[in-house]
Fold this sequence. Notes:
It is a single chain. This protein is α/β, with parallel strands linked by helices. The chain folds into two domains: 4-138 and 316-338, Rossmann fold (3-Layer(aba) Sandwich); 146-304, no CATH class. 27% of the residues lie in helices and 27% in strands. It has helices at 13-22, 45-48, 62-67, 83-95, 116-129, 146-152, 175-181, 199-215, 311-324, 327-331; strands spanning 4-9, 28-34, 58-59, 72-75, 99-102, 132-135, 157-168, 221-230, 235-237, 240-242, 247-258, 261-271, 288-296, 299-304, 336-338. The strands form three sheets. Strands 3-2-1-4-5-6-15 form a seven-stranded parallel β-sheet, sandwiched between helices. Strands 8-11-12-7-13-14 form a six-stranded mixed β-sheet, covered by helices on one side. Helix 4 (83-95) runs parallel beside helix 5 (116-129). The radius of gyration is 20 Å and the shape is globular. The model has no long low-confidence stretch (mean pLDDT 95).
Amino acid sequence: MRRYRVVQWSTGEVGSIAVRVLAARPDLQLAGVWVHSAAKSGRDAGELVGIGPIGIATSSDADALLATAPDCVCYTASGESRPDACVADISRMLAAGIDVVTTSIPGLVHPAGYNPKHVDRLAAACREGGASLYASGIEPGFAGDQLVLTLATLSNKIRSVRTQEIFTYADYPVAFTMFEVFGFGKPPEHRCIMQIPGIQTSSWGPPVRMVADHLGVQLEAIRETYDKRVTERRLEVAAGAIEPGTVAAVRFETIGVVDGRDAIVIEHINRLANDIAPDWPTAARDGTYRIVFDGDPGMTCELQMGTPETFVDAGLVGTAMRVINAIPYVCEAAPGLVTSADLPATLPRGAFAL
């Protein structure tokens, strides 16, 4: 079995999981770890992510890491506020002949639905370096697209399909995402990043388009909705304090319209406490993805991550594994932008090892 050399790019929540996994995988060799800050640079990567020394020092020298010519970079740097910088980074890697898997640009799960300027730049870099790029995650990247298409193989007729993420985010630790992207902890009149027209479509429009394209239907439009509710009491959550009168629940939809109806919908219902917005959709337990088909046959499928106590951590592991498990398949793929519809099932190698 060939062993692929991988550089891990960033050590945030998903990146730290990736370091721990890559350090232990028999088919993948952790060849380096990039960090953004001088304070983290030079530290043992294993100690940085809590597994003890592994003999690999982190580095903030991107040139030096890329000069080692790894087979692949696992790119998990923050992307919500810096898509242009992410595209520039990844294009450089691809042009150097290095394959890339990433969770940072969710819209690339279906390049045909993403920013054409960015797609053209990345595709040109793939051609220049003869390299491949794959983007994924748990949602986008699985629940609202690949899982939907897999379930659609059971269908005779489909009128609509709705994917719901029903998660409490009290344990989600990334402050920028919580406060600036989703608007938690802000006054209800505050306009968060997710409310800027087109932002939702940039991330969830591509999986909506992916489902439509692979089912052979033409979208008339993609619409966005965003609703929020406030808390009447102070909440202490992993990302910080949420004061009374500020946002503590959000609900938003990215809607693909077909023949005048809401036909392909990805909906998020995210609370900081289960008793906020009780009239919004709920699930039997926290950490649930629900896919509902209206058609022949009608069907509902629920995917639950971890346990009610561990679903946030389990979701982060699932996000990381969507790209880590794909590394051998991406390295073996023809050059270009590849998606889950292009690759064989990206099954883990050695997952049953004791």
